[in-house]
Amino acid sequence: MAPTMRFATKIVALQHREWSHYYLDYNGLKRILAENDGGCSDGNGTVTIQHQEEDGLDVSTISLLSYTLLQNVVVTSKRFLQVLYMEVQKICLFSLKEQGKIATELDTCNNQQEDIAMTVRSMDDDDDNEIPSDFSNLSQRVRTLRDKYTHVGADLLHLIQFVDLNNQGILRLLKKHD
Residue 136's pLDDT is what? Predict the structure, then answer.
C-alpha cells in the first residue's frame, strides 16, 4: 500500500469482508464533523449579550455569524459524540462475541489434543513395535487438529487487525474533533 493512502480508503481496503458492517463508520463520522465547516449564512447582524460586573453593566457584542457557528459546533459535537459512542459499543460487542468464539474453538482444539494424546499413550502401552492399524486415522486427526489451530490463529489475527484498524480510526476522528 502507498504510504500516502488516506485513512478512509485504508479502513475499507483492509477490512475483513465478512465483518465489514461491524467496522467504524469512519466516513459517516467525518461527515458529521464536516457539518461544522459548512458554515452559516453570511450575516452582519449582532447579538447583544449583557452581563453584570462589579463596576456596573458591561455590554458585549458577538456577531450573529459567530454565535450561530458556536451553536452549530456544540450541536455537531454532541451528535458526533453520540454516534461515536454507538459505534464504539458496536465494535466492542462484536469484539467480545468474536473473542468468545475463539475461546470456544480453542477449548475444542484442546479437548481434541487431549484425546489424541490419550490415544498415543494407549498405543505406547502396547509392547509390540508394529505400526498400529489405526495410525492413518490418528495421523488424519492430527492434521485436522492442526488445520483447526491454523483457522483459530487466522481468526485471532483478523480480530487483532479489526481492533487495531478501528482504534486508529477512533483516534484520528477524535483528533479531528478536538
Answer: 78
